[in-house]
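Why do we bother with a discrete structure alphabet at all? Because it lets us treat a fold like text: something you can write down, compare, and reason about line by line. To make this less abstract, here is a complete entry for RecF/RecN/SMC N-terminal domain-containing protein. Read it the way you would read a sentence in a foreign language you are learning: slowly, and without expecting to understand everything at once.
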Amino acid sequence: MMDNKPLLRRDAKLYCGRKVRKAFFPDGGKKPQYFFGTVVECPIFDGEICYKIEYEDGDVEDIAWAELVQIIMDLDVPSASGKSVGHQPSRKQPSGFATASLDGPGPSDFGIGGDEPRMQRQGRTRKRDINERDGGGDSGQDVNAGAQVRTRQCKPILDDAPAEGDDSEAEAAERPRKRMAMGRPMLGAEEAGGREQARAATMGPEGDDFGGFTQRTVGLPGQIAKIRVENFMCHKHFELEFGTHVTLVSGANGSGKSAIVQALQVCLGVTARNTGRGTAISDLIRTGVDDAKVQVTLWNTGEDAFMPSIFGDRITVERHLRRTGASPYTLLDARGRKAALDRGEKVKEVLDRMLDYFTVDANNALTIITQDKSRSLLSDKSNARDKYEMFMAGTLLDKVQEDLKVANAQLCAMYKNFEDILTRYKAEKQEELQLSGKVEKLRSADKFLQDREMLEQAIAWRVVQQMEGRVAAAKAAAEIHGPELVSLYECHVDAIARAKQDLLDRQKELAVELERHDSIVENNMSHVQGLLKAEKNSRINMERAKRSKAAAQASLEALQNDKKILDDQLAQDSNGKAAEARRLVEEHQKQITEKQAILQTAVEDVTAALQAHEDARAKVEDLINQEAACHGAIHRAASNVAEFHKQLRGLDAEQDNRLGIFHAVDLNKLINQNIRSFRQRPIGPIGALLTVTDGRWLLATEVALGHYFRNYLVSCTADAMLLRDLMKKAGYQRASAITTRFDAPLHSIPVSHRPANGFIPLLDVLIVHDTAARAPVMNYLVDKAHIESVALVENQSQGQSVNHACSAGEHIAAAISMDGDWYRRTGGLRWVNRNERVKRQHCRLIADVSEYKAALERDLEQAEALMGARRDDLARLAVQLRDARAWEAKCAADWKVATGLKNRVNTELRRLIMQTPEMPRFEDDEETGTVLTQLASIQHELASSQIQLQTAEEALALAEQSHGQAVKQAKEEQTRIQEQVAEGKRLREQQMETVSQLAELDGRHSAAVSSREQVRANLAKLRQGVEIADARLRQALAAANQVCNRSMGERAIQLAREFVSEAVQKKMASKQQRDRQLAAMGEEELRRMHMRTVEASMDYAGLEKQLAVVNSNIAKAAAEAGSSDLQELEIRLAAQSKTAATRYRAYKRMEEMMQRFQTSYANQMQSFERLRTSLMDITQAKFAKYLRRRDHDGKLEFNHTERTLKLLVKPKGKNNRDVQAVEDLKQLSGGERSFTTVALLLAIGENTESPFRCNDEFDVFMDDVNRRVATETLLEFAMEHSMFQYIFLTPQEIATVEDARQQLMKRRRIQLPAAFLRTVKMHPPRPNAVQA
């Protein structure tokens, strides 16, 4: 039936070709006239799918879906292939869990493929609504959004946009809805009555008291009519017809009962392995034959029939089983003929669709319970997990979960197709834009022509402008710059010549000085030789004096011994004359001794006076040196005071700005005066631009970078030369002019160059507030001082850690502390440079200039105080020097007086010694006279010897003094010679350097002369070229005047500049999106780049390129438009715009729908939880209900986490609550166990809607009583659920079944018709047996 309105255009197109019949009332008459027509197209108007009908008289009409379903002749829903498939409604799912095949886009709609959606397995079990089971109406509402629900992991995707959005929200129901026939809407009363009559024909006679049971004479769609097998298992030929309600097959073991079940399974799609009777189809073929055949005939009656136009009221599924090869299926119609399927349509696919339509799943344990399954349930092989899975399969909950998963997967496919739809929308939009562009191109063709005319005029006059500029520049170069350049080269040559002459003069001076120095050195060498010879002679004289002293000493001692002997002889003489003589001798000797003592005292006085004189002279010399040192200290202090005054004056002159700190005040004035001579203003001094972020690192920064602070940065060599000249004029020393790029971006410092482990680099504490100077200054310090790799350390331990343990990284080779101490490492060498020169008050990067000025004032005050103290010291030294000189003069006079006294005493001593005492005469004693004579002689010799000894001692002292002085003079002269030799070496090095500089100047002079001559030659050529260029300019001017006049040309050039500027702006904007470096540039840099690019493009080549682009655009305008008809393109553009807008609206509607699907999916999940809980409660109640029929009690325990179902049974516990529940069914008797299994199957089967149920050996292990009760329960269940067909197989006798039937009628007080129960007694297979 056609109760599903197509939401997609592709679904609506399936109705194209269908026949319609519609009544019209011509001329306003009352009698209708019927016309036949055909659906030819499905257009969309305002988002609504319409159907274009072409009638037999040639007239056409567009109608809506609601009208189409009233006039269409064939009510069958078309398949995706376009052929009607009879009454085939979409497969129903539990309410709230409908898949994508329901009233919405299915898998094929979203690009999954296939003629029909294959979202669930074959033979899905149908379910009924709770309200229907309870006798109520259908309270649920189908929600057709299962596969359309959007998950958070998926992204919505466009495909074919729906014709209209689904405005209804998904309603979650507690129970699945029963599959209902899809009746044709708005049926007339007659037609509806005919339907009721047709339905009544399938039912039994009315009026019988069957207690609400409705008897059927034919089965419902999907129920089994009969089965026929050949050579299958134990049967050679066998055929069995089934009742429309309950069929009970009885037979002993080996009679082939179970073969019926296996035949049903194999024919309805179950694999041989899943039957439990073999691993392959060949295991099911009768022994001795190679093939077998199984036929299962299903009822196909009523409104729910499957493709009745093809199959009729019965469908026979036939399968040929072969030992080798495939075992194909065949579908037969009601006449036993092979069904006429569509060409290319496969039998297995139609079979699957049919089983799916009838909700037949032969694999479902609740549809066909095999003998093995029954025994498994009765034994303990069926564990709690198997029971839970059976519950989930029987109640369809596992299918619902699977559907939700499938819906999720299909949402991902929806995303992909959603993107495809979006892509198609973008393509439509792109086509619209292309058409719009084509239209605009045709509309702007006149503008291109105007641009071409403008560019041609601009090119003509731009050439004139450029030639005029070049001619003017050439004339200026030939008349001004060329001679100036020649003059510069001449000046350069003269300067080199002067420098060369200066070096020659210096070379001569060095030669003269070196000659004089060599002469002095030679003379000094002779003098040193003389001194060394004098030292040698003095040493010889000293040795000789020592020997003379020793000889005099020896002679004196010998004479004293002789004198002692004579004294002894005279002592023995008692003569008075002898005594007189001895007295005279002793007195004379006493006089000599006294005189010698006086002489010794005089010598000591002379030595003391000489020492005092030497001390006084040394003190005078020391005071003279102190006075000279004091003069030097006063001079240095005065220089410091003057420097401090100068710095303070500079700070005052610059109003306390930072230029005064770096003594750049005068230089800054000169720069301002000559600012127009610079290409760009110099940046500096560098120190005046820097600031330290943390005052703790002021001293470290001063030590590390102080020698860079006075430097300036310039942009070119010419500016550097000019700045150096200004530095000389201003006296700005110890500074450099560094050439660098001012427009270079700030260096990007990689992490690998920075200190690691928390150490900060010197770079991070420096700030340049001037934005224009920031990049040049910081780049210069990075390049020269490597401030990014200098680690800052707070103390000595951190410095040692960086230096020795590499704690800041292996790449960090330098660190500096707060006190300015350097920690350096080179290779294996590590050392520390202590800061002893720079003090904290000398840090010039101090942020507050007033603080620096205060420090200078303090230093000035200290310097002035120091200079005053030094002057006081100088005055004190002058007084001390005057006193020392007076004392030196007194000491000199005392030494002179002492020396005269010593000489006088020495003369008197000599005279006294030379005087011999007059001895008495001993005429009478010759011997005594001889002794006296000898004594007088010895006395005289002794006096002479003493004089000689004294003379020798004086000579030795003089020789030692002379030798000491000679040694001292020789050493001093040798030291002086070494200094003179070093000085000579320095002079020779200067001479060699001068020679080298002369050689370099010779080369520069030759190069300068050559360049000067080249410039002169080039100047001559330039003048010739000016004449030629002037002639060409006149020709270009004449050609340009032919194009337009000058004013128009200049206007064209201005317009061309704007044209080029716009083109460059677009190109730069496009490039900025791809080039990160360009995107990071500032607005000012972009503006300058834009101006440079525009200016570069305004030459002849650039304008010609723009002209070529314009010509190309003119050529492309018609080619890209595809037509020169502007009106046609505008019509196409309007149509395309409407199509794109429609596509966009459809996209937005689908997006909104998918948002609703997400909400619906959440509701479905909640519904699933409620449904599962409801089914658990129903199953629990039914299970307990059936157990109570045998006075048992029991309950079911569900564990959804572990997916287990446990049975707790209390035998005879209905009226005895104290009975212990049994969990292990092995503790029950065989009958109790079998009955419990039947109760479980019936409880779960309450929710299963397969059109038939088959149970093999349901009463195994039961005793007679339990068997009767179980059979009665099964029959009662079948009576209450009369819409289903039941097939039971038992090895027991049929009498028990009849007894149970009678008991049921007696207990329920009803009369069951004979057709309700069909019993079949099977016998062991025998030849030629065809029917039981």
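What the structure line is telling us, in plain words: Residues 445-572 form the longest helix (128 residues). The CA atoms of residues 1254 and 1287 lie 5 Å apart.
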